[in-house]
Amino acid sequence: MAAPIDGKSVRFLLIKERGLSKKELEAVYNEAHQCLVSGAPPIQCVHSLRKLLLAISCTKLHREIPKNLLRALCIVVLGTNTNLPQFEPISLLCSAVLQEYGPTPQLDVELGAGQASDLRHVPYLLPVILAQGRCSKRLEKLVSQMLKWVSTVGFNSEIQCRALSSLVTTATQHRDLLSDEQIYVVGSQLSDWLSNASTKQATSPHSKQKSSKNESVTEIDGRECQDFFTLLSLSSYYGQDQLLNIHTFSSLRAWLLATTTSPAGGASRPLEVGGRGLPSLGGEGASRAASSGGKFANKARKAMIEKACEYCLRVIDLCHRRPLKIQDQDLIQACLVEAIETLIVICRLDTSLVSKLYPSIKQAHTNLAKKWPRVQLAILQFFLDYSEALHVVFKPEETIADLFGEVITRYMHDDTVTFDTVTFLLTNLQQLCLETELLEKYSPSILRILAWNPRTFLSDYVEILPAMISTDTAKEMLHLLLDLPCTTASLILTHREKQLRQNPSLLESQPSWLTSVNILRKPEHQPWFNYILRSQSGKGDTITKLNFLYKLIENLASHPRVLICSQAIPSLVRLYFKTVLQHADYDLVSQLVPIILERSAILFPITTYQDEMRRVLGDALLEMFSLHPSLVVDQRTELQDFIGALRHIDGKEDFFSHVVWIIGQYTASMHDKRCTMEIISGYYESLETLLYEVSVLVQSSTEGKPPYSIRLMAIMMTTLAKLASRCQDLIPRVILCLTKISQQQTKSRVGQDDKKVLLSRATELVNLLKLPDVASAILSPSTDIREGRWHSDVNASIPLLLKAASQLIQPQAS
């Protein structure tokens, strides 16, 4: 047995293949061609074809397989290669290479030159032609051939299964290639395969003598099959009709989705599942189905629906039985999910079946759903889709509470459950947003899925996140997003604790786990982890000792899962602010300002994450004040406290600079008439004191290593000058302050270029403030000037003269 390949080896191999040069790629082509035409040993051929498949799948270069190699690959797939022994892996690899290479007209010409010489090669040929799609000239003829294979009684069952799968693929991707008559022929055949499979065990294909025993197949619980065969019927060996029965049920839902329309009102409209449109009959086909010639069609469809309903209900009934083997639990769950999802599609074809099917679905919900979350999701989908059609009123709140509360918590680390949950949310996003409180109430639980699988579901949550934000949850949602790396780290601890509980011997290979798990187990730490890993929303604020929790789990900051989560969050926070600023009212935006100021200092201890998040928060703050300048008045207490302490600069100087710039830009009566001299003076007092402290620390610093940048000091000085230009009583104090700062920095050890910039800025501002009217015009220009409306007098001649002069000068300049 070959040794398993770890993730690092796979990544290294992919990077290597993506970096292949043109010469190296040609060498791979030549090696594969030589193996195919020279009759090389099968193992050598397999090795070369694997290299070829990997190369054309990964290369960044233009893929153009040489014609001689393409011809050799086609010969193998068509079964006409006399040099190579009949070795299945070679045919499979050649088929895979051609599927990856297509669609291309070059390949279509080669494939059209021959025919499959043996039915054994049909499984390799069909996927290649289907991958070609419309580029293949044989696709339309192939549909007729596949239909003939499917409808021929006693034909090779493997070919019939392959043909049915190919017909489903064709109907899904190229619906117009199938006529209504062909669809009804297939539908009738599906009905027969579902209902006419034998309940007797097939004889062993390896036995030389025909067995005289005629044993019945058994059900999942060991009883003899009494009614009819289903895919939950167990047998030592399966006959062709039984294999076709299993394959039919597996293909049934996809076939119905691809080929049927809703019959409501006789109109042709797309069949919808969870609010998403799917292919319909459409055009002339629909007209024919609705015409007098559609009588047989409706009868055939009705028969298929009846057989499918009977089959699915039988499967659901069998799923209530206890299996003989514990391994069959997964089989039961998969069959139950498929049966319920098939019934959901069938009910869209005939809504009168809903009341008939409801008791069975309800019983499955009561007895089976709590064991299997995937089943619970499928049943919840049925209830959401048909709650209005049910005679009894069903409220999904209880099911939702159980699923997104306890169940998701228990199965958080199950990739299948989380994938199905996210798919369910995406499928029903509009309905869940408008008709339930699921997205708001269980937002912490929903976001936990992203915290554990950030790379897998990031693109999905870009679609889900805006629907989770509301006026009631916006504040908490911001905390949840910012704390998501902490949530990931906490989930890692719970996963380790669970693994150690189930398998204590893991401590021998992972001794470091015990320390981190002990942090989780301590009773005094439980309230913090319970908060971070809560399932329901309703907490508008965050915990007071969040920084202490960060320190407890900071050893997980370098964990790959935590790092990936920290890289994904900034894009979601940007989306959050885009959504909020587009839809929120002034009161909500005002409530977010203190949160942004607070959380700029409280972020999970990953340096790159902190820097990026402060950049995002700073940009959001700028946009908020640009849209709502009155925030400088309503949030003046929070802003003054923020700019009045050195601790708010340390480690987040750029963010602090944004806040200082905002105060200088929007603290003016032109933006809000409530902006009085008292408010301006309050901002000035806080900022002046801090500027003196910063200046002293910069002056006393060692050469080349100031604790704060000259850029920050320049922004603070400019903001003070702006405030003074709007409150002229402050001008003498600002001139004195800037003069003192200049004198201090003359003696400081900062770089000469920085010192020159700072002194130049101070001199410019002092000279401006000595002319108050000029300072007001320059430092606090009116909105008309900023927006370009400089000439408001329509009777003035200067604008006309400027325009005329411009028109005269421009042609000469050109």
Largest sheet: number of strands, sense, barrel closure: 2 strands, antiparallel
Helix-residue proportion:
55-70%
Residue ranges: pLDDT <50 for 5 or more in a row?
Answer: 109-117, 262-293
**In which order are the strands of the major sheet placed?**
1-2
Whole-number average pLDDT?
A: 83
Number of strands: 2
Pairing-aware structural class of the strands and helices?
mainly alpha
- Helix count, per DSSP? 41
Shape: elongated
Strand content: under 5%
Radius of gyration from the alpha-carbon trace, in angstroms:
36 Å
Distance between the termini: 78 Å
Task: List the defining traits of the structure above.
mainly alpha; two-stranded antiparallel sheet; 2 strands; elongated; AP-5 complex subunit zeta-1; ARM-type_fold
Q: Helices and strands in order, then pairings?
A:
Layout: H1 7-18, H2 22-37, H3 42-58, H4 67-78, H5 88-101, H6 105-111, H7 122-132, H8 139-151, H9 157-173, H10 180-195, H11 240-259, E1 272-273, E2 276-277, H12 283-290, H13 295-318, H14 328-349, H15 354-367, H16 373-386, H17 397-410, H18 415-427, H19 429-435, H20 438-441, H21 443-452, H22 454-468, H23 474-482, H24 484-502, H25 506-509, H26 513-521, H27 526-532, H28 546-552, H29 560-583, H30 586-599, H31 607-627, H32 631-634, H33 636-643, H34 653-666, H35 677-699, H36 710-726, H37 731-746, H38 752-769, H39 772-779, H40 783-786, H41 798-813
Antiparallel strand pairs: 1-2
Helix pairs in contact: 2-3, 2-4, 3-5, 4-5, 4-6, 5-7, 7-9, 8-9, 9-11, 10-11, 10-13, 11-14, 13-14, 14-16, 15-16, 16-17, 16-18, 18-22, 21-22, 21-24, 22-29, 23-29, 23-30, 24-26, 24-29, 29-31, 31-34, 33-35, 34-36, 35-36, 35-37, 36-37, 36-38, 36-39, 37-38
